[in-house]
Structure formats: C-alpha cells, structure tokens
Amino acid sequence: MPPPKARIPAVDGWFTLDAKAPQLLGTRCKACGSYFFPKETSFCRNPSCAGSEFEEVPLSTRGKLWSFTDNRYAPPKPYMAGDPFVPYAVAAVELEREKMVVLGQVAGGVGCDQLHAGQEMELVLDTLYEDDANEYLVWKWRPA
Amino acid sequence: MSSKEVAVLGAGMHPWGKWGRNFVEYGVHAARAALADAGLAWTDVQFVAGGDTMRNGYPGYVAAATFAQALGWSGAQVASTYGACATGAQAIDLARARILAGLCDVALVVGADTTPKGFFAPTGGERKTDPDWQRFHLLGATNPIYFGLYARRRMEIYGATPRDFAQVKVKNSRHGFSNPNARYKKLYTIEEVMGSPIVSDPLRLLDICATSDGGAAVVLTSMDFARKRATKPVRIAAVSTVTPRYPNTVIEMPNFATDSAVGVAAPDVPFRDSIARGAYEQAGIGPEDVSLAEVYDLSTALELDWYENIGLCKPGDAEKLLRDGVTTLGGRQPVNTSGGLGCFGEAIPAQAISQLCELTWQLRGQAGERQVKNAKVGVAVNQGLFGHGSAVLAKV
Ligand SMILES: [Zn+2]
Q: How far is Cα A57 from Cα A47, in angstroms, rounded to an integer?
C-alpha cells in the first residue's frame, strides 16, 4: 500500500489547516478596522485611511449565501480539473462581522438545486486536486 | 457646454467573426472605413489612440503604433491604452481630451482583437500573486461563474426567470439580424435558448456571449472642424471612465471577495450605477432623455442589471421593462439595437468603440432596418475587469 499523501494547502497562508474548524485568514487595518481577504499587508485600501499596519485575523466561519452558480464544464488551466470532470457549485457568502462577501467552491457535491439565497453556510477544507505525492487543500463552503 | 463636446465624423468596423487573421488587419480595415465615412485621408489624422489587446504579443501592447505603421508612418502622435473591456472608452477619452485641450483637430481611435476559442483563460505561467491567475487555479472561477452569480441573485431577490433571460437573447437576435457587422445572424426562439446546455446555472450556452475577432474605429474631431464638413454632426457629450468607490460591496471579476464595509459604509451609488451617472452628470441630461442604449450584455441576465444601472428603471423592474417591450426596437428606449454582445461576441479592445459606431449610425438615421425613430441621445456602457467604468454619451 502506498504511504498516505501529504495534505498541503493549495495556496500558502490563506487559511488554517485545522481539519475540524478551518478558518480563512485575512488582515485588518489597525487604523480603520477594514478587513481584507486575501490579506492586504502594505497599505490600507480605504481612501481616507493612511494606515499601513495590519493584524492577521481569522474570518468568520459562517455566513449567509448571497448567490450561487456552478461549473458544468471543466474550467481551463490553471484549474486542475479531474478526469472525468465532476461539475461543482460555487457560492458567494456574506460574512456579517466583516461585512464582505467571500467566494468558494461548494463542498460535498451539493448542487444549485439544494441552495437558496440567505441560507446559512459554513467553511470546510477539501481537496482541490492531487498528484502522486500530495493532496492539495482549499477552503470550500457547505450548507451549515 | 458645447465647448466640452467633440464630433464623431466617421465610424467604421470590420465584421465580427472567428476569422483567425491578425488583429492588425481588422483594425486597419475599420480605420479605413471610418476615414472614408468621415471623408478624410489617413494623412489628415494628427493623433491616433489605440486600444491594446493582451492576446496578440507585443504589437498588441503598442496598438496605436502598430495600426499607424500598418496605415503607413505619417508622423502622427500616438498613444496606446488598456482598460480590459473598457479599453475602447479609454482610447476614445484620450482622443477627446486631446481635441478639447486644443492639441489637435483630427484623431483616429482604433481597437481590434483576435481571440482564442473557448473560455477566456489567464495568460500563461504561474503567477500566485495575480488574482486573475488564482481565481482560475483555486476556484475555477471562469467569467461565466461571475455572470451566473449575478443572474441567480436576480432570480432570488427579484423573481427573474430563465425565460426572461432567454427573452433578452431573442430580442437581441432580432435586433442584430440585419446588422452587417454582427457575427451571429440567426433569429432565436425562447425554446432554442432554453434548450441549450447549462454552462453556469442558471445561464445556458445561448445566454452567454462568445469571444470574437473584430475591429472598430471612429474619427473624432473638434466641433469647429466638423461644422465645416457636416451640417449636424454626432457629438460626444460625455465619457465616463470612473473607478469604483471604496468599499465596492458587489463581488467583481477577478476578485475572491468584496471590499469590507466595516471601516467605511458602502457608497450610496454602487459602482455599476456610478458609470452611466458620471456621463449623465457631464452631459447635464438624465436617463429619461435616452433614445437608445448599448449595454455590455456579457450574459442575457446582465443586460437586465444594466437597465437598472443606467437608470432606465428602478432596481427589480428590469424584467417588467423587458416584458413590456420598452427595450425592444419599436419600444420607448430600445437597448442593444446593434444586437449586442449576444450577436457580436467579445472583441475586447474594439467593444466600446463598436458601441459608439452603433450610436453614431442610429443618431444619423443610418441604421437601416434596426433604426430607432427620431433618435436624439444614445448612451453606451460597459465595465472592464479590475475596476474600469466605461460610458459614452452621444447626441445630435
Ligand atoms: Zn485603514
């Protein structure tokens, strides 16, 4: 039996690897409190803020579904589509505390027919793609 | 405010299609057509504004010089610009600003593209800090994914139906049917649209615009220059190339997230509403004055969003406007009389220029079977990736 593959993030530093309760990692401007995802670490994007110091913050793990759609055909590279390609849904989820909407794939084969705007969603980690050595992880949303 | 106006003395296009030839050919064809329409020679042009294309190597990044060389070096001044789908509006505005500043009387604006087949994908190589690369890599977030999110949102909050979306395609296919520059000349039925395969739910293949080859050009001149050559030239009364205001709380390509509204409250006027509003304010007119509009129908559902964004109706009323025939030729404010992207497909740097060509022909009464009666004011809007607004307001 081949050794189990290493589970590594498909992108570094965008989320925690806590398998049970993963969190997206953003930043927050120390001057005006604005959140950023992916992380902003140089200059605050609020036009009225001169802030340039940020703290890393985990984002809310739950939010309300703003809208949703799906990919019925394999997206082009650099997406690493499986063969055969399995269609999947994509969700836009509104985080109340951060007052922002964050995209993510929908986990667990949940399709658009099982989704509706306003629905409570939660963050999970799931495999994006794998090669011989590694399983590459990404954040996804699923109905809470 | 006539001192802030420039004239569109000539308009020309190369038909949209999938011709597979060099983009320079389309641009030169369109430029020559626009010059002939204006009754001017290439050597009369003092300034050339080129809309860049990102998919055709170095000549595409220096489009103005590329077109100038192909037309024959003449010593004209040149400038090339890029603003994704808003590229054409930026090139138009460059020429307009030069003319209004008194730096030249005659400017040529050209955009052309040759596109690959299928989905737009990011340019090659691994670029982990480029959100346009990462959105494909981590999410498989193609352009239709974003269009699908907007379409579904209309269904969830306004009760839009896939039938409404199909109706947009049916309408635009009728509008573009007689347009010699359109790529798709077929009269679609609701059933055909709703029978095409779903790409990104709820959008079907026939709800989503294709990518095309094509070229468009306009000759812009000072009003004084134009009055000596035309009795009632079409005038550009406004160009708006605004960015969003922070925080932009609508998810936009190619982003993973919206801005946060925690540090600053969301602006009263959302980005897409601010684009045409900027043009109306410059021109001192309102949406009620608009005789016709060209809007960027990347998807059928997105055309409905635009009705609201450009002030033809209140949020949530677009489906009623469509169903009542207001935006169909013969209605009060026809939208996408050219046939729109549904009949053309995207040829990015040419798109906003081709919208102005349509406005010009309509305002001159030269639009043939698709002519809007008594057209006085036309507005053309679109939006470029990474926060580029694009609105051009023309009138006679
Ligand atoms: Zn700040």
A: 21
**Interface confidence (ipTM) of the complex:** 0.97
Residues in chain B: 396
Q: What is the DSSP string of A80-129?
A: ---SS---EEEEEEEETTTTEEEEEEEPTT--GGG--TT-EEEEEEEEEE
8 Å CB contact of B260 and A116 = no
Q: Does residue A56 form part of some domain?
A: no
> Is the confidence at residue B102, as pLDDT, over 90?
yes
CA B88 to chain centroid, in Å, comes to 8
Say if A25 falls within a structural domain.
Answer: no
Q: How many domains does chain A have?
A: 1
Where residue B237 falls among pLDDT bands split at 50, 70, 90? very high
Which of B:164-203 have CB within 8 Å of A? 197-203
Domain that holds residue A125: 61-143
- Is A99's CB within 8 Å of B119's CB? no
Structure tokens at B286: 């309102």
Taking CB atoms and an 8 Å limit, are A33 and B256 in contact across chains? Answer: no
- Any residues with CB less than 8 A from the CB of B222 and at least 6 apart, and which? B6, B7, B99, B102, B105
B208 reaches A (C-beta below 8 A): no
Does residue B131 sit at the A interface (CB-CB below 8 Å)? Answer: yes
Beta-bridged to residue B381, according to DSSP, are B391
Q: How high is the pLDDT of residue B120?
A: 66
CA B141 to ligand 1 centroid distance, Å: 29
Rg (CA), chain B: 20
pLDDT-derived band of residue A97, with 50, 70 and 90 as boundaries?
A: very high
pLDDT tens for B259-282 read 999 999 999 999 999 999 999 999
| Residues in chain A, total | 144
The radius of gyration of chain A from alpha carbons, rounded to an integer in Å, stands at: 17
Contact check, Cβ <8 Å, B201/A33:
no
Residue B171 has pLDDT above 70, yes or no: yes
> In this complex, do A71 and B140 lie within 8 Å of one another by their Cβ atoms?
yes
By percentage, how much of chain B surpasses pLDDT 70? Answer: 98
Query: What are the tokens at B314?
Result: 């209140």
Single pTM value for the model: 0.96
Residue to substitute from B258, B298, B305, B386, interface A, most A β-carbons within 10 A? B258
- Chain B nearest-CA residue for A45: B246
Percent of chain A beyond pLDDT 90? 94
Task: Categorize the per-residue pLDDT at B130 as very low, low, confident or very high, splitting at 50, 70 and 90.
Answer: confident
Looking at residue A68, what is its pLDDT? 98
Asked whether residue A53 is assigned to any structural domain, the reply reads no
Domains along the sequence of chain B with CATH:
6-118+214-227 (3.40.47.10), 131-182+194-209+238-395 (3.40.47.10)
Count of CB contacts below 8 A, A vs B? 143
